[in-house]
Structures are given as structure tokens and as C-alpha cells.
Amino acid sequence: MSSQISLAKNSKVVSTDELSKLKDSSLFRTEAFVDGKWVKAASGKTFDVKDPGTREKIGSVTDMDASDVRKAIDAGNTAFESWKKTTAKQRAALLRKWYDLIIENKDDLARILTLEGGKPLIEATGEVLYGASFIEWFGEEAKRVYGDVVPSPVANSRMVVMKQPVGVAGVITPYNFPNAMITRKVGAALAAGCTVVVRPAHETPYSALALCELAQRAGIPPGVINVVTCSGENTPEVGRELTTNPAIRKVSFTGSTPVGKMLMEQASSTMKKVSFELGGNAPFIVFDDADLQIAAENLLACKFRNSGQTCVCANRVYVHEAVYDEFVDKFVSLVKQKLKVGHGLDEGTTFGPIITERGLAKVEDQLKRAVNSGAQVIFGGKRPSLNVSGQFFEPTVLVNVSDDVPMSCEETFGPLCPIYKFQSEEEVLRRANNVPVGLAGYFFSRDIGRIFRVAEALQVGMVGVNVGNVSSEVSPFGGIKESGVGREGSRYGIEEYLNIKLLNIAF
Ligand code: SIN
């Protein structure tokens, strides 16, 4: 087992000291945001939030239960009555102000995000900008929600299709993108004229609360955005309330496939509109005609973004046998050169910790099972030794991994990169599609015929061709198969928050 990883300039970060470096400390909130007010749970209970880079407590946040959530839903429902009547132009102006404030405060938002979510500060800043782009985009899209005039089959009637906001949306977001997964959903909801009750992940509530503070400063009216924070213990009951309360008309969730299935079942009790962005297991295919340097650079970013904790991260890398050795050498030397493991706030860090203990345990378990079945670790492979005692795992590259170990069949959500050899297009497509999920897939080739054949044959919702990225505010983000339903971002994303109404007008 090899261990040549680079470490960032390895100071001893003290998480709470880092909070004092915020330019605007009022962005760090510890209470929930309901009906335009900062409120505590009726029980008075709180839960602790830790920095995954040090395992130190950053602070405590109010721990809401179902009864608190009902009050937030009521607030959202009352606010909906007036918010739905605002013009698209008014909503667009408020979203633009919110966007401007996010940009003005991006450094603080990024610091908060790194402290709770672990990602390197430079990557956290990237997420804040990515998150802001959804607010800007959906503010603009608000003005482009058009209806239709349908040719009627009856002479003396006219048919008009109008679009109306669905109502209060329940929004449940994950820990890996504490900022952007909120803005991608809330931006679309507000632009459509819906109000929201957001439950951020208990590991990363602070980014959500900071966004609320800025939304309030932007003038978004009370009750339009509500954020209910809760501990892991209260998460099931809060989730159940958001998916079963009759006043909630839409549920949007990003997270794992098993939890998505459960929430979808719960939401079916009142037939809510749903969009679910669930787990992936992205194939990343390098054909023998690919530009290997470009493919290797893209794999580095695609696989190790957020230390592998992204649902569109490459999970299985297939390389044609004719270029396999050359590609693996190029890739490993990039990993060695570019990835510096450390606390996200340490200078030079490009690779941070695993956000949860259970995530780290899963990485170790998948690695052990692959190695026990004959896989070879050619880079990384263990917890690094650092000055901070966070949940770190080295970026790890493996070869000779069999197709039937968990690493090959399930999403890793961590920094393991198995590289498999293949011989033909038909074979690699069969292996790439041989999973129950289908979120993103990537391939590298310069043959135009193959580009269309493979792009059409990959069973995924998003394909990167000669690029390891599919995400942006204009991209319809979402999957097929067990990766979920619905699309976020793009002009399609706003449709998820709208009902279609037909007017059949006889005269
Ligand atoms: C995710 O991992 O859930 C989202 C990733 C992205 O938006 O690129």
C-alpha cells in the first residue's frame, strides 16, 4: 500500500476561533427562522454541530420537532396567500436583492460552510457562487413562466393553459452542499410564487440560517422562507411532518435513494408533487481515442470534488485496455501533485475531511471489501496523519477491483477511485448501465459517431462528454431509474413548483 499524499500547510485550526474571523458575525445564527422571526424550539432543546475537520463543537442550534414544524407550515401557508399574488417582476426584484447580498457576503458564507461542511475554503467559495447563481437565474426565470393557448376541438370554445404556484413546498436538503442545494430549490419555489419550509441537514444548519438572514435583509416577506433546524434524532418526525402535512403541496428532497423512497411513500398519502434528487453511481469512461491528459484532469475534479461526497462524482472509472497504463500513470501523478489534504481553512488545502463518521466508516468498509477480493491500492488507502483530528481519508486509487464488490455496485460518496479495464464499447456500456441508479455519467472520446451512440445509450439523466462536470444553474439537474424524479435548475426546474390549470371557455 502506497502513501505519498501531500499535506496542506498544516496549522492547528481551532474551530471556534475561526468564527471570530467572520466580517459580519450576525450571519452566524443558532435559532430557526419562522414567519420572519428567529425562534427556539418549544421544547427548548438544542443539538450540537461539529466541524468535521477537527471534530470540535462549533455551536448549538435549536432542535425542532413536528409541533414546531407545524407552526412553520402554518406561517408558510398564510404567507402563500399574499406571495402568490405578487407579480413575477416583484419576486424577481427581491430575488435579485438576495443574490446581491449573497455575493457581498460570500467570504463569510464560505467560512461558515467550510466550518460545518469541511470543504476547502476555495471550494466553499465556489459553492456559494454556484448557490447564488440559482437565485439570480430563477429570479430571471420568474418572468418567463408562460402559459399556452390550445386549439380547441370545439368551434365555440377557447382553451387557455395557465400555470399557478403549487403552494407551500417542503424542502429537505443534504449535508454535502449546505448552501447550493437550498438555493437551487428555494430559488425555483419563490420565483414560481410558492413559499417554503426548509429542513437543512443537522450536520450543516448554519449555511441555511445565514441565507435566511440575508433573505430577510433583502426584504423577502415573513413566512415566505421558513427554516426549521433539527437534530438527527428529530429528523424522522420532522421529515414525516413535511411529507404528510396536507398544507404542504410539494416535497423536494436531495439525499440517498433509500430515504427518498421512504419520503416518496409518505408524500403519496396526500398526493403531493415531488422532486427527488437521489444517489448516483457515475461511470467515467475513457475510450482509446480520448485526450488522456484532459480526461485525467477532469477525473481529478470530478472524482475528488468535495472529497468524493457529491452525488455526481465519478464512482467507477473504465479505461480502454490500450490506454490503461498510460492513463493510470497520468492520473496518479495528478492526484499526487494537486491534492493537498488538510483542514478546509488551512492554507493550500484542496482536499478536506469526510463530513460524517458514518461516511468515513463506509469508505473504510468498501475499501476493505475490495482489497479482500483482490483489489490493489496504488495510491492512498488510509487515514492520514494531520495536526487536526478530523474525519480525514486519503484520496485513494485502486486497480484490479472486481465488478461485484460494494465499491463497484454502490455509491461510495467518498474518495475511493477504482479504475477498471475494458475492451469494447458494448462491454463498457453493459457494465456502466448495470446499476439500479442513473444520475450522471461521463465519457471521453473524439469520435463523433461514438459520442452520440454512447451518450444515447448511457442510462443516466446527465452526460458529460469530454468534461467531468454537468452542473450549472442552466443545466437540468436530475436522474432516471432510482436516482429520482424531476429536474432542478434550468428552465425546467421552476415547472416543479407550478400546477397547470386548463380554462375551457365556451361562448
Ligand atoms: C449533489 O451532490 O447533490 C449536487 C451536486 C451538484 O449540484 O453538482
From TrEMBL:
UniProt xrefs under Pfam families: Aldedh
GO MF annotations, alphabetized: succinate-semialdehyde dehydrogenase (NAD+) activity
Gene3D superfamilies associated with the record: Aldehyde Dehydrogenase, Chain A, domain 1, Aldehyde Dehydrogenase, Chain A, domain 2
Biological pathway: Amino-acid degradation; 4-aminobutanoate degradation
Top EC class for this record: oxidoreductase
Aldehyde dehydrogenase domain span: 38-501
Domain of life from the UniProt record: Eukaryota
Catalyses which reaction(s): succinate semialdehyde + NAD(+) + H2O = succinate + NADH + 2 H(+); succinate semialdehyde + NADP(+) + H2O = succinate + NADPH + 2 H(+)
UniProt-listed Enzyme Commission number(s): 1.2.1.16
Catalytic center residues: 277
A GO biological-process term: gamma-aminobutyric acid catabolic process
Annotated PANTHER family: SUCCINATE-SEMIALDEHYDE DEHYDROGENASE, MITOCHONDRIAL
Family: Belongs to the aldehyde dehydrogenase family.
Full protein name: Succinate-semialdehyde dehydrogenase
Organism of provenance: Coemansia brasiliensis
